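Researcher: Please predict.
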Amino acid sequence: MHSDIRNLLLRRLAPRDLNRLLPDLDRVKLPSRMILEESGQNIEFVYFLDDGLCSVVVGNRDIKAEAGHIGFEGATGSALILGASAPDTVSFMQLAGSGWRISSSDLLDVLKTMPDLRRILLLHAHALTTQITHTLLAAAKFKIQQRLARWLLMCHDRTHGDTMQLTHDFLALMLAVRRAGVTTELQVLEGEGLIKATRGTVQILNRQGLIKVAGACYGAPEREYERLFAEIRYPG
């Protein structure tokens, strides 16, 4: 069963801790648009993603923007880990996937006797906060093309493979810009041979080229994640 786990947080647990946690974990499918957390509502479950992509969105009925991403490198439930019962964001599956689910009550119980798991989840909560703060910086200081390149790279970091199911409308919503602006910038990136955009999909062709386009807009949260977990080894 351990070989079925692709989530990096779970894989960082010592074998004895993972074995203790497994009876409380349920394998679940996570279809596109499935809501994992709702703003202002108590967190019922925490999800460790194996694949797919979760968007953390801030806003209200009239205006929304994406604040962060969670993929196989992380988990939902950061508010719970930090002592709150409910988030002030909405988390939902942007790209369908699968993962492992544990009830909030079970997780809080096991955290009492599993300090390594608590440490891992706290480090991830910090990493996610770092990512969100840099999303704010990107929105305030960088052009749409740089932000789009950053966003595509972040998606690529958290998914398996080079092709992602993404529409122009959805990209515009996530970046809080007009659809026409997204379409124009996708065409520019495609013209430079960095991506291939078809109806409802974007394929990464030249990752290094995208990194160059993103410039200082991309990389700091990723380096912080690596730094935080550098001393935690995989059990093998």
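Model: Residues 143-220 form a domain with the Arc Repressor Mutant, subunit A fold (CATH 1.10.10.10).
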